[in-house]
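Hey,
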Amino acid sequence: MLSDGKSIRRVAVLGGTRVPFARSYGSYASATNRELLTTVLDGLAARFRLDGECLGEVVAGAVLKHAGDFNLTRESVLDSRLDSRTPAYDMQQACTTGIQTVIAAANKIAVGAVESAVAGGTDTMSDVPMGFSDQLRTALVSARRARTVPARLRALSGLRPRDLAPALVHPDTRTGLSMGEHVALSARAWGIDRTAQDELAVTSHRRLAAAYDSGFMRDLVVPHRGLDRDENLRTDTSVHRLARLRPVFGTGAPGATMTAGNSTALSDGAAVVLLASEGWARRRGLEPLAYLVAFETAAVDFAARPEDPLDGMMMAPARAVPRLLRRVGLGMEDFDFVEVHEAFAAQVLANLAAWEKEGLAPVAPARLNAVGSSLATGHPFAATGARIVATLAKLLAERGGRRGLVSLGAAGGLGVAAILERPL
């Protein structure tokens, strides 16, 4: 009960829209975050007849964006078919950005602050901001402040070729390790073998291909720039083919298992999901697919203990999920579908093992990522959470499920879990 005497309201998930995800420097090589986010907003507006509608709020974000995109979501709304008076703001929490935007929007609906909201995210690794050395930055600032041509030339004369190299990959500032190297530590700590990782990757591709072929993805995906399916999808992949690939992470120690085939490719794309109060949905004749009923966030101390099985960079869901299920009095057997973000096959398998160690029942393979996940779709960082929520809501509605679980891990040792339910 709120202080004004009103009750917390149920938050309906009405559906979602995304573009087909592209491999970086592929079909969306010249696309911007603003273009991609605007495209999915327009797709959502077309699907749900929202042209010219003033919604309660749009909240979205991008993990990697240029300085000029400081108001990215608002600019995308202004470019879109929505009423320009729809408020909008940006959020960012690494790879959990998308799910956190869903939670933020849902909370406002639950307390009656807004009746409807759009949540999601966008990212493009094809248009990633470049970092430069301190030497180049200092020289450019000095040259800009200089008042004469000779003074400008003097400011630049001390630069060396190595100072001009851009920085595109940023390892963790505390450990010096990339995300993949961190997950390689978890794979070793949990004894995750190569075959299990390759099998998970192949299953993800095959299930996503089947979802496209069956028409399941038809109203979830808006074609863009000539793509109507995810560019990373490999319909002909197999465990035999993946076994030929060389490890690319954890190669500094014997027995490396993580390859390009069982790790997510760098990707470009955007996704959004439409949330609303039951009253708003009813007035527009929209049937809720599911309701967002609970969520939990967690973090781990990956910097101090990167090799600890429960403190790996991507192991925070191992804490978030058990904590969430204890709080709501549910077990893993109570879920018809379990959607786990597949940044790396090893990370998924390590978290599944950790949940069992925490006393949860094993996740039945048929319930895990039933129509494929990030290993097949790709993973534009801020878009993944909205993609998963929209996918899970449709799974529950179309396949008769009662309840679904969402789990995502992120850089910084962060994890978010959420529960969607169908009404009784």
